[in-house]
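In the design runs reported in the main text, the only information available to the sequence generator was the tokenized backbone. The following block is the verbatim input for one such run; it is reproduced so that readers can re-run the procedure and compare outputs position by position.
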């Protein structure tokens, strides 16, 4: 068994697509609407990892309903500092890190526009 994809429920599909494609380098591979008001977009990374962005316009968008995500997406990177510099140039700051962990990896965290925590891992 292996993970096929991670699904992220988003509050703004266009904003999320810009974040994942332009800032993080994912590529859109499939888009469809399984029912009225629900839009799915699948993205892939440089290898075999996939994300599914789920936008449901029928779900309430009130502030009390959007408390952020309980999901963390871990992305392996070759050079954490280079990734953080690129993100900073686009106005995205880490929420934690960079942190050197005892097992030798370096990690840092950002949030996407939906409150999903993105963890970058160097040396994984």
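Verbatim output:
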């Amino acid at each position: 068994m292996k993970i096929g994809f991670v699904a992220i429920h988003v509050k703004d599909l266009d904003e999320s697509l810009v974040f994942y494609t332009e800032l993080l380098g994912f590529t859109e591979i499939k888009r469809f609407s399984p029912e009225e008001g629900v839009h799915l977009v699948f993205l892939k990374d440089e290898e075999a990892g996939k994300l599914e962005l789920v936008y449901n316009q029928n779900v309430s968008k009130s502030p009390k309903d959007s408390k952020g995500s309980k999901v963390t997406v871990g992305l392996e990177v070759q050079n954490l500092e280079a990734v953080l510099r690129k993100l900073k140039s686009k106005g995205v700051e880490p929420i934690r890190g960079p942190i050197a962990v005892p097992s030798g990896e370096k990690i840092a965290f950002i949030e996407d526009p939906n409150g999903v925590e993105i963890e970058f891992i160097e040396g994984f």
